[in-house]
Design brief:
The chain is mainly α. The protein is 79% helix and 0% strand. The mean pLDDT is 79.
């Protein structure tokens, strides 16, 4: 068990991706998320097939991981792009579930986006304040 964890840690250390490449990948994911049926098609064509990998699930898990700041890295543009990607995916799901008219959909989409981004910004500010307090208390 312990050896498996060490091997996984070594593999993760070997897979260090430069910031610029991560940024490009996340921006591409955001572009894909803006295509209305992309993730639905991805899910149906890969995740629902018994002989295929769970590609949609894996991609969204990576985006979720990229959206969360770590203890050593504060909020960056990559975090914001990842959050925007998640918002786009959630909005596309919500719009398909509710099926409003196109005018209502665009208004609803803008309202949802602004509310979610405000919540994320407030949460990030709180976390940054807590981290600064912890760092100051440490020194």
């Amino acid at each position: 068990q312990h050896q498996k964890q060490q091997q996984q840690q070594q593999q993760q250390q070997q897979l260090v991706i430069p910031y610029e490449i991560r940024e490009t990948l996340l921006e591409s994911m955001l572009d894909f998320a803006r295509i209305p049926w992309f993730f639905q098609d991805l899910f149906i064509n890969f995740d629902c097939q018994p002989h295929c990998e769970n590609l949609c699930n894996d991609l969204l898990a990576l985006v979720c991981k990229a959206a969360r700041p770590t203890d050593t890295v504060f909020l960056t543009t990559n975090h914001v792009v990842a959050l925007n990607t998640l918002v786009e995916v959630l909005e596309s799901i919500a719009l398909r579930c509710c099926c409003p008219s196109s005018d209502d959909a665009s208004n609803s989409r803008q309202e949802t986006r602004s509310l979610l981004l405000e919540e994320v910004k407030e949460e990030a500010k709180k976390e940054n304040r807590q981290r600064r307090t912890q760092i100051q208390a440490h020194w």
